[in-house]
Write a structure and sequence with these properties.
64% helix, Tetracycline Repressor, domain 2
Length: 207
């Protein structure tokens, strides 16, 4: 790739972020390297420091992009839902769509999915605007909203609603990890789809 000699304001940061995201898509968070990002962007290594202080800063920005993509997948799945017979059915369908979108993203973008939750190591950015989808909600907020919908529809009691995000997320994320990084990755698509649906059934029935 020939070196780029000029950038409009903001273009270099975007180019570095696009390069970092491409590296994450290829090899997960470990593949995100600032020097390689500058090489792909066609600039000298020192040029990156005006936009990212170090490799960790670039990785954090790539993680935000990845989580946004997760949110988009979840919202896209919800947008395909047919009209429901009543509020309870609609609320259940919205929650299930959240899980289906999450699993499908993990299967289609395994390394970007792995990157999405690599930093930070806690919940500090769970509601960060730069990790949100078109609705303005992050993946965690989308799950929370779907669970609130169950309460509003009279499907889930307020007592059982408390902390339900962590129960549902743990089950779906665990399956996604096993299917993309663990022994379940060797299973066929049809079987993995069936297992995913059963896990979602388990979550709904458990709640």
């Amino acid at each position: 790739m020939p070196p780029r000699t000029t950038y409009r304001h903001g273009d270099l940061r975007r180019a570095l972020l696009e390069a970092g995201t491409a590296m994450a898509r290829e090899g997960g968070p470990e593949a995100v390297v600032l020097r390689e990002a500058t090489r792909r962007a066609g600039v000298a290594p020192n040029a990156a420091y005006r936009h990212f202080a170090d490799r960790q800063a670039l990785l954090a920005a790539v993680c935000a992009v990845a989580q946004t993509q997760v949110a988009i997948a979840m919202e896209t799945e919800q947008s395909t839902l047919p009209p429901a017979a009543d509020h309870a059915e609609a609320a259940r369908a919205r929650l299930r769509a959240i899980g289906v979108g999450y699993l499908r993203f993990a299967q289609s973008e395994p390394e970007l999915f792995r990157t999405a939750f690599s930093v930070p190591l806690d919940m500090t950015d769970a509601a960060a605007p730069n990790r949100a989808g078109p609705s303005g909600l992050t993946p965690f907020q989308l799950l929370s909203s779907a669970l609130d919908g169950l309460v509003e529809a009279g499907v889930l009691s307020r007592e059982r609603r408390h902390g339900a995000e962590f129960l549902a997320w743990s089950a779906v994320h665990g399956l996604a990890t096993l299917e993309t990084q663990g022994p379940l990755r060797m299973l066929g698509d049809e079987f993995r789809e069936a297992i995913g649906q059963r896990v979602l059934d388990m979550i709904e029935n458990g709640l």
